[in-house]
Here is the input.
Amino acid sequence: MKDLFQQHILEKTQQALAILDSQKLDCLYIESGFPENYYLDDQPMLFKSNPHFLYFCPDDGQGHILKIEAGQAKPKLYFYQPNDFWHEVSSLTDSFWQDSFDIHVFNESQKIWPEIANKGRRMAVISPNPGHAVEQGCDPASNAVIQQLNWYRSSKTAYEIECIREANKRAATGHKKAKALFLEGASEIAIFKEFMNQTGAREADLPYNSIVAFDENASILHYQTPKQKTPHATFLIDAGARYKGYCSDITRTHVNDNAHPVFAALLTSLDLIQKDLCQEVAVGVEYVELQRKAFSKIADLLIETKVAFGSAEELVAKNIPFTFYPHGLGHPIGLQVHDVGGKQLNPQGDICQQPSDFPFLRTLRTIKENDVVTIEPGLYFIPMLLENLKVDPHCNKLLNWKLVEELLPFGGIRIEDNVVARSAGPENLTRQFLS
Ligand SMILES: [Mn+2]
Here is the structure.
């Protein structure tokens, strides 16, 4: 990990210096930030570090400041260790990344900025709380700086890919246990807790709110509160882990013997469709093209299983796959589970044109070498969306309503992996740990 990190920080520092040069800046400060309190409360919200800080430094503590400027042998890391007997304080014990920085420990956040600001030089700061830096003459980083960093963040270094791989490995352990517990008849909440137990995560460590949903709850796309409910037939789990700030985002759907045979067949087929789509993650492919393929494959599947009638073209023309699959095929993943730059066209920050057939998509860019994206087709029976089809006379005739009614109690299916695009062919970071 140490060698990979050294390559990473060297490359990222050079990129940052080139950005500074292009923007006529002398130095860039990146602050990890401080947590805010809940409204009218003295309790802090869960702290999430500034992702631009984590991009350069894996320590996820608060109050640290990184300074990048030309002529430094290494980036300077001002490491915050307050004299605080109320809270645990960041310590310098994790050694693989420390040699890459010129580290200065400080303990008073109010006093640090006057000491470290290069007054009279052109300074930019990326911080969730930039007030103290601005008082010392820093400008909050311009959009041009942020967009260029975002562009570089989208293609992952070997170090970043290893972190995402490890995050996948950890989550896979939780997913395997979750499946076993579902087949034993455990409750949603018991599985949710056991997932945390297996991955060693506290809720604050999770990349996003885990979704643990049985039966009809699986048709609520972001079902947030796992309950005491035990399963009848189906189980959807969308849960990931983090490693050194990097996320995994994995979904699996399972059935037991009580599932409707058509629902079980849909699951088997969607799994094959998902694996095919993962194979199509390639350098130079527009993500929206994969979205279109997913739509037409889901239309074919609805016809094959007699959920719908007519031709796939007819279903797509009437936007019927959207009723069963009302979300995007996936997103970039990295330090943020929905990582930056999903629509970015170039380093300057121009945005891809929104295709008229997919006005809701957040991922539109052309896939580049070492981009990591999720591939997550789904197929759901969502009462609210099905009602819309019912009242449209043409669409109404294209659906096998008797079968749809039978399938409603089984909720839905989603299968999601994390895939690296490479010229030599895609690498699936999830399936190497989880079938
Ligand atoms: Mn996802």
About this structure: Residues 323 and 384 are 9 Å apart (CA to CA). The radius of gyration is 24 Å. Residues 158-184 form the longest helix (27 residues). Residues 249, 331, 374, 376, 416 surround manganese (II) ion (CB under 6 Å).
